[in-house]
Amino acid sequence: MSDEFKNDVEKIVKKIKKEVYIKDEVLQKIVALFLSIKKGLFPGNKPPRGLLFYGPPGTGKTQLMKVLAKNLELSEPIIIRGPEIISQYYGKSEERLRKVFLEAKEKAEKETLAIIFIDEIDSLAPRRDLSKGELEQRLVGQLLSLMDGLERENLKSEKGKEESKNHVIVIGSTNRPEALDPALRRPGRFDLEIEFDPPNVDERKEILRILWEKNVRDKNKYNIGNIDLDKIAEQTRGFTGADLLQLLNEGLLQSIIEGRNYMTQEDLLRVVNSIKPSALREFNLEKPKNRIEDIKKEIGEHKANTLKQNLNQIVEDFCKNTRFTPILINLENNNDKVASTIAYLINEKSPYPYLVVDALRFRSRWFGEMESSIRELFEKIKRLQQCVVYIKYLDAIADKNDEHLQGAILELLEYLREFNDMKDQFKVLLLCSIEKDNENNINQSIINIFEKHLKNP
Length: 457
Known about the structure:
The chain contains 18 helices and eleven strands. The chain has 457 residues and is an alpha/beta fold. It has three domains: 194 residues, Rossmann fold (3-Layer(aba) Sandwich); 76 residues, Helicase, Ruva Protein, domain 3 (Orthogonal Bundle), CATH 1.10.8.60; 172 residues, Rossmann fold. α1 crosses α2. The termini are far apart. About 1% of the residues have low confidence.
């Protein structure tokens, strides 16, 4: 039976991968879970009732559900889109939520297994400690109650010693897992958390091939053999499947505009820089420039040449041993120029997204919002894994003398330590600038994490 089940899983995985590209280990885990529950083969008495899918937009979370249901011969998942269920009338939102769960239970009675898919679940069940409205509090409470109700249904069937025919699996999808209320992430609710990473270079190449097969009508005219997929995949770091589809469509459009019935390598390369990866759309993604000549005008040629040597050494060290590298910049009016030049020099060797974040925008009078902004930034960086990040005005959120910043300092320090402890896992160059003479005001534990301090020569 186990060999037969394993073969069934492999067949379904192959079928799904023809329509949507998901990492093998992720896809096998999901298919095995659903297939074992459908066939009554799950070895435990309490199979998971909730799964949390998280990752940037465009990584295939929603599409996978539809393709999975089709290949497992299940009815379409009941899809809840967070913003759509919210009503201005008191109690109406909770009523809509209850109706969805009731519909799923009735469907499961007929079909053994029913799926509720909650898209953008963080908008429906945000962290209650950061919520300002009563509605969010009530919705989180209602969802917790409904999830616990599924568990109670399972316990009733166990006591009656009869197989449950009412198996409902709830899947939540979010690109901001840190914004979800922690109570939902406890065992018995969303038991399994599955990350959908942006694809790596080999996976991007395979996704491009799949998209080409699915979306290009005349494959004789538009021959994929004319395209160097390795080069395109290398130039599209941070791109998700949705971004790659946009790239392909814009390349095809470019060929039409120029009156050709074929697409060239140049068509795709031309539009790469005009597409902002989904994972980075909430941040300022800049095209770095070599600003060394501007720096010379500010500090003179001799000092600029000394600085240039330091910058070249930083770039050489990072490219030779690509890992988490934090650098503190304290160069008065030249901080932005130096950060841009470093990113430019790195991009000459290998393309890395360049994120620019102004820490002053994190300042807030609302309790917990600064910590939330810091958390969101570093979680994005964590999922991206390869990038150059420039945080301007770090002292705006790390001044040890400001009592309102103590929570932000602890949050920042926790992430810096996590990245530092797992240096080799993150190919991230973190550049942080501070204003002149402010270094002594920065929390010393934060200062100690930075490997290099760039100051005026």
